[in-house]
Amino acid sequence: MKMESEIRLEIVGLIYSQSVVNTYGLVLSEKGGTRRFSIMIGEPEAQSIALKINNKVLARPLTHDLIKNILVTLKAQLKKVLIYELANEIFYSELHIEDFHGKIFTVDARTSDAVALAVRAECPIYIKSHILDIVGVEMSADENAAKPSAGKTPDNFTDEDWNSLSKIELTDLLDSVLKEEKYELAVKIRDVLKGK
Prior knowledge:
Blueprint: E1 6-16, E2 23-30, E3 35-42, H1 43-53, H2 63-73, E4 77-87, E5 90-98, E6 104-110, H3 111-121, E7 125-128, H4 129-135, E8 137-138, H5 159-164, H6 167-179, H7 183-194
Parallel strand pairs: 4-7
Antiparallel strand pairs: 1-2, 1-7, 2-3, 3-8, 4-5, 5-6
Helix pairs in contact: 1-3, 2-3, 6-7
């Protein structure tokens, strides 16, 4: 039986969700490819991911720092994170952990926690190819270029950040800022959209 291929992912960024309170879209793209998708995650996990991506160090360890510290203490290593299933719009992930004898164990995890741990352990994140075939959205080379850093908000985007967003992302952002009655920001977004 042929093994299904796994595709390596990169974190593109985090986008605050206006439709569901205290949630973010974790945007992931295939490494070296043009497909992208997002996963809805909670605010604590989004904050944890953003802190690590932006190299912010807190006085005390967060939960994901604690888990990494436990692995290090036990001489175990997180080798990879794998998004292995999609059911009822929920992504299922597992941690592939190597113990000090070289044996690999898999541990079921929420995708948000798995990614937060992966960025701390600097290990790769993969997705089963059939799942990416379902959820991946093809982006042009321009749209798939550098995106705003995780944790940035539209209030402090640079011109480069604005230009890196796709029309769909800009339209969604425009809807959300209009709901919040941030009209100056809405004008900026409309100007960027006109130039697309």
